[in-house]
Amino acid sequence: MPATITVSSVFPAPAERIWALLGQVETLRTIARPYAFFTPLDDMSVWAQGETYRMTFRVFGLFPVGMHRIHVARWDKDAWLIETHESDRLARVWNHSIRLTPLQGGATRYTDTVEIDAGRLTAAVRLWSLLFYRHRQKKWRELLEREG
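User: That's the sequence. What structure does it adopt?
Assistant: Structure tokens below.
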């Protein structure tokens, strides 16, 4: 049975700055570690709507999941919304959306919503995903503070 998680944080940075970082593949690789290690199989440095990307995926850098596919279904700066349809050997459905909501004072609400279907493993993958996205948002905060 599919499951959905939502994790949201307020970052002390304008949406424009976060959006620029979201567009870089290296940002994903940075904020995912050490929960997930992604190695691109395609020549890629920025995301583009309509494109499908392939990466190897290792949980905690140790456990190979195999190839993870990311199809960028929507990359809409006007709506501050990104939607990807992803899948790999464990999760046949991993539909991820990122929504930015500009707030007063130059802050931004950042929200990850993920729909997961991993068959009998959905509950375990959901739990790992909840921890992973909380970690990612913590790493986002560190990245934004470090880059001033």
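Strands lie at 3-11, 36-40, 52-59, 63-76, 81-87, 93-102, 108-117.
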